[in-house]
Amino acid sequence: MKSLLRIFLCIPVLLQAQWIQQDGNTTENLVGIAILDSHHIVAIGDRNAILRTTDAGTVWVNQTMHISASYDWNDLSFSDSVNGVLVGDRMIMTTTDGGISWTVRNNPSLQQYLSVIQTGPGTLIIGTDSGYVHASLDTGNTWTSEKISEWPIQTLFPWRGTIAPGLPVYYALTPYSVCAKSILPSPSWKETMLPMFAALGSGGVDAEFCNGGETGFIVGVFGDLRAQPAILRKTVSDTAWMNVQLISLQDGVLCGISAPSTAVAYACGSAGMMFKSTTGGDSWSAVSVPTKRGLRAVHFYDEQHGFAVGDSGTILYTSQGGTVDVKDKQTILPDAYELLQNFPNPFNSSTTIRFKIPVRTFVTVSIFDLLGRKSETLAHATMEAGEHSIQWQARDASSGMYVYRLTTEKACINKAMVLLR
Predict the structure, then answer these.
(1) Which range marks the domain in which residue 354 is found?
(2) pTM of the entire structure?
(3) C-alpha span between 269 and 253 (Å, rounded)
(4) Are residue 97 and residue 241 in the same domain, yes or no?
(5) Strands 306-310 and 315-318
(6) Is residue 266 located within the same domain as residue 360?
(7) Neighbours of 282 (CB within 10 A)
(8) Please, is 185 exposed, middle or buried when counting C-beta atoms within 10 Å of its C-beta (0-12, 13-18, 19+)?
(9) 167 has a pLDDT exceeding 90
(10) Same domain for 270 and 172?
(11) Banded model confidence at residue 116, pLDDT cuts 50, 70, 90
(12) Residue 346, preceding peptide bond in cis (omega within 30° of 0)
């Protein structure tokens, strides 16, 4: 029986929250934010909400547009500090003064506009709920349209690295696929399925390439048996998007991603979820924030300065990278051998087994069926004191109950888990 094995040494790290909650002068759900420079920021949300600050959020001015109907904005994008666009329910508006004033633009269709990028003054690309992409080279006066998928275009995101011949520079995320296209005008978009989102309730929500272009991230949810936060990653050397192992005891959906550098990335989501990576997405740490409301979007100006927005007018700000790493208190080791319950459980194809050992010792972690037959050995090596995690990829195993066992020189601990196909 073959298995893909990943072992993670979880060194306890205390991440003290450095997020400050700001008053945005609204209770509407906020869904998008753009940082124009270190002081000027624009946020958008439901019921025409457009917020703007010129002092890094000390004071937010609600610039809700007084138009004849109520529109829920879905996305915004700025190509520089003054030229921007926002889209919503069959409404497109642009600005040339950093969001002080907005101009309504021609509608290319009666579809719902979900996503937008402005790659330069006058160059707009819009994604719709019916899989269409509309592009304009003259600030929305004229449009070209193309259906690129059967699913909604959740997010449009550009390549942020060096442009090379044949390298796609525009990407579109649907719940189940990624579409890519080279510089406009060009041949049609190419769609690639994301098989890790094939299960019921799974899907991608937001995506971004890091500043520098070496790595891209997709966030969303794995919903096979529970709502499990999901992060996918693709580096320049990868041929496909790969699932990043994210150990989270909290159910929910990741809704926003921001990668201000090749090393640092942030993801936010349901019920105040926030994760940070300082390793280019290799590992992620949960970050405490001063809210349990859903966070819909996150955007960092650099590695230290960023905003997150969400439900009921929630606005969070950090000028210290969201966390302060306190290292003096991180030498606490377990005082006993402990085998933790696998997570998730029940599971469909993969699960994470965590255990703690108080001293450096030889460790064996094995899987048995209910007849006592060994199915697989996941670990058989000397390990340092601390908490460890092992992932079992049960691709060739049948549905049923299994026993996983931690064996050391001084301990033998069993727990049960359930595999459901």
Answers:
(1) 338-419
(2) 0.74
(3) 6
(4) yes
(5) antiparallel
(6) no
(7) 13
(8) exposed
(9) no
(10) yes
(11) very high
(12) yes
